[in-house]
DNA sequence: TTGTAGGCGTTATCAT
DNA sequence: ATGATAACGCCTACAA
């Protein structure tokens, strides 16, 4: 490989001068700069980050640890967000996936240490409580899309499920719906509780009785292999004479099930029934016809702002144990409309 | 940071000996190994890859370039496949995403050169023909999920759309269906042609007349912002007296549209109508009820075997311009059944 | 404005 | 089986 010395020889200057030019330092004679740059071009010299990093012991690499398995497709947007931030700020990104296996997680921490990484973004595919690496590792870390367990101190950046669900509830009630069905998310997810709590609170605050809100459990069991009651529950809920005029689902996958159930019962959406979901999984939310009203998960922003947060942490600008909450915007589409006067 | 010299001092040996132990070289006295390892443990020494790489100029890092935008969620599985292979083979993975922007692509090549990466996996989110980086870069590269344009020589690994579609066509015909509808993929996708060509050939080979196969275009326009005719076309196709008993769609997104259209027409699936898709986007294929028969895209394997192929290339074990095709397995689920005797 | 000396942490080479 | 010395490519510190 062509090194700084080769360039120096061709340009007829010292290697240090080449270094200066390569780093765009001031105090180099313009003519010299020109000369050196020409040599660089001629030889196709590309600086060696490895050497640069070693000498200055200043890394510009972030590590990403994910726990993806084949579920939760759009959570990959978190990584895109991180990469965009990294690209804009001249950082490089080293990535590893644990498949959720603790052994691979600790291997990864080790590898990242070996590479003298600046900091780590620990990305989970769904919103939950975690406790990364029991064995002490001292690389600065930010949790993305998860909340740290009490034991350790980590900064985190998370979606504001509670607020998003509040907005959705208010919207549905403002549409005039007074009989509302709600099919709950798997309780194993942190979002499940936040979303139903928020929804219940709004219902109460708006003066509706709890009887106007019918809540059913849609899924349960281990993530990725849950039992799914949604179609059945929705069918039952929508078959009664006193059926709800709006059916809210814990997420878009469940909304799809409810949607199918409604169509099979001959209900028109949104004229006869308003359906809404959560997550904005576009394969579903944009795939349905009419498209699905839903609360979007800010995956991309979680990544982008997570990287930003990590950067602030590295510069000592952020206190320990700081948690950021990112808004989950309500996306209104065709599956919801005002309650028809019945 | 604690270095090899610190360990040497504590263990009372030379730094080279520590190096030997760290690299598990033979010809070190067992007692010495023990002594050194204890010092390593005591000091928490972690080797510095940066320095190691510099000295031996042997990199163990693969670069991944993706062109993801927010569409095509499951293509992230390609990356998972790569990461799994990398993990199993002690490679590290540097990642960058171009968002499809050429400027970012060339920045990325540059960055990878700076990091003295071993090789690059160029991953596209959908199956298409590409021509990476017009400006010559000499890092060994394997294209994953795309086919090189004629101009340059690249190895590639791609899904066998043709074969997958052939299997699906045979299956549908074996079920006894004689009137078949087919809604085509956006012609901008490489898979579109492969899939319809294969389908047509099987129909011909099985002695059906072309009149028994009704082909409609389902989507067109720029990827990510296409015009969608599927629901409309499906409704039309299924409304006629002489309607098809099986409706095959270019992918699962389109199958969802067809599914909804069928339900709205009061058709039962699969009793009245067999529906099949392509891609196995599980949010849809497992979300529908009954679940969708489809041809799976081997995303994970593309990544895993792509990494494997790159590794072989790096070891000089693979000739130039070699293309691998990976099978797209037919996944039979509830949305398909034998044609009812009408 | 430019150059020299030295060292970052590791491994290659050659001795012992 | 172990060690001494040099070198990888770059940058820091200092000098000219």
Question: If you had to describe this structure to a student in words, what would you say it looks like?
Answer:
The structure is a homodimer of 342-residue chains. Chain A has three domains: 4-47, lambda repressor-like DNA-binding domains (434 Repressor (Amino-terminal Domain), Orthogonal Bundle); 56-158 and 300-325, Response regulator (Rossmann fold, 3-Layer(aba) Sandwich), CATH 3.40.50; 161-297, Response regulator (Rossmann fold). Helix content of chain A is 40%, strand content 21%. Chain A has twelve helices and 14 strands. Chain A has helices at residues 4-11, 15-22, 30-43, 49-56, 76-88, 102-114, 161-174, 190-205, 230-239, 252-264, 282-285, 299-314, and strands at residues 61-66, 92-97, 119-130, 141-148, 155-159, 180-184, 213-217, 219-220, 227-228, 246-249, 274-279, 293-296, 323-326, 330-331. In chain A, β11, α11 and β12 form a beta-alpha-beta unit. The model of chain A has no long low-confidence stretch (mean pLDDT 93). The interface between A and B is large, with 53 and 55 residues. The structure holds a DNA duplex (16 and 16 nucleotides).
